[in-house]
Amino acid sequence: MAPSSEPILEVDGLVKHYPLTRGVLFKKQVGAVKAVDGVDFTLGKGETLGIVGESGCGKSTVAKMLCHLERPTAGSIRFKGEDITRLSGRALKAVRRNIQMVFQDPYTSLNPRMTVGDIVAEPYDIHPEAAPKGDRRRRVQELLDVVGLNPEYVNRYPHQFSGGQRQRIGIARGLALRPEVIVADEPVSALDVSVQAQVINLMDRLQSEFDLSYVFIAHDLSIVRHISDRVAVMYLGRIVEIGRDAEIYDHPTHPYTQALLSAVPMPDPEARDRRERIILTGDVPSPTNIPSGCRFRTRCWKAQERCAVEVPALAVPAVFRGTGSLAAHDSACHFAAERQAVTGEGGRRNGPA
């Protein structure tokens, strides 16, 4: 489903395979880790696209490819209509200025031997045209003020800050070049719950202030719903369901999404007691040996023979087309449907766990 605003980032058939080799002198490829295996989505200008999924599903690999920290094996990433996957040199440098990243761990993403002023000003050394040398200290202090830190902290070191403050420094560094797209790879997962809310609210405010588009990656479904306009659910290297937040959270049609949402903690004890929990059996398949057909079929209670031989397309299910229902959004399942109280082999439902 395309965003309502003008697309600024278009991802088509994105693939990243890491080769598995054998031998010392004469290495021979014997397989591949299929970290990302055909991802498609569009990011609109001023929009936030949330990407959720289990650990190891390929979310962070997608983030690295968007920022060109990893080169894709196949597929294309178009920024404002230009395919950036094959760029290099000055052309790549110019694009990187417009797509910046906020990393997951604020404790390791900042150089402990550099002051905060040097960390935030480092992008200006790579892109000197963004700020004259004599004006950089003032720019850095303005950025620290924007993210809620004391501008006089420019001479302090990262170890003198808390985790939430360090993540604010990382956000300030990401904003230094005035990018149009920020890729946030689990930016609050390493922070305390109270600090998470502060950082999320900060990013929400900065989006309107700097006219930013976000790709927001997380495994906390409640945080993703709070900040995202649309949500994409990933499983084993592919997007299995994508739509607006209300469509995904209130009308999920893919069994994997339904299982994820059934595990979200609920503060209301009565609602929690009434909820049926979907507990998936089996382990996530190895990305070196992905099941044929639908990759979720080995854990799915709806799986049939068709699922083993035919890869489901990410499209609006035929049963919902033209209905105007919130369930009419893209879902990669042959038997996509809103949640039903039916169980079978591969998953079971029970009360509160």
Overview of the structural elements:
The chain has two domains: 44-72 and 82-235, 3-Layer(aba) Sandwich (Rossmann fold), CATH 3.40.50; 251-350, no CATH class. The chain is α/β, with parallel strands linked by helices. Helix 3 (116-126) packs parallel to helix 5 and helix 4 (136-146) packs across helix 5 (163-175). It has eleven helices and 13 strands. Helices cover 29% and strands 24% of the residues. A hairpin with a 2-residue loop joins strand 9 (230-235) and strand 10. The strands form three sheets. Strands 6-7-8-3-9-10-12 form a seven-stranded mixed beta sheet, sandwiched between helices. The protein has helices at residues 59-66, 89-96, 116-126, 136-146, 163-175, 193-210, 221-227, 245-250, 255-262, 269-274, 305-309; strands at 7-22, 28-44, 48-52, 74-79, 82-83, 99-102, 181-185, 213-217, 230-235, 238-244, 277-280, 330-331, 347-350. The radius of gyration is 22 Å and the shape is globular. Mean pLDDT is 89; it is low at 341-353. GO terms for molecular function: ATP binding; ATP hydrolysis activity. Residues 9-261 form the ABC transporter domain. Keywords: ATP-binding, Nucleotide-binding, Transport. It holds the Pfam family ABC_tran.
Write the layout of secondary structure elements.
Layout: E1 7-22, E2 28-44, E3 48-52, H1 59-66, E4 74-79, E5 82-83, H2 89-96, E6 99-102, H3 116-126, H4 136-146, H5 163-175, E7 181-185, H6 193-210, E8 213-217, H7 221-227, E9 230-235, E10 238-244, H8 245-250, H9 255-262, H10 269-274, E11 277-280, H11 305-309, E12 330-331, E13 347-350
Helix pairs in contact: 3-4, 3-5, 4-5, 5-6
Organism: Streptomyces broussonetiae
GO molecular function, one term: ATP hydrolysis activity
Protein name: Dipeptide ABC transporter ATP-binding protein
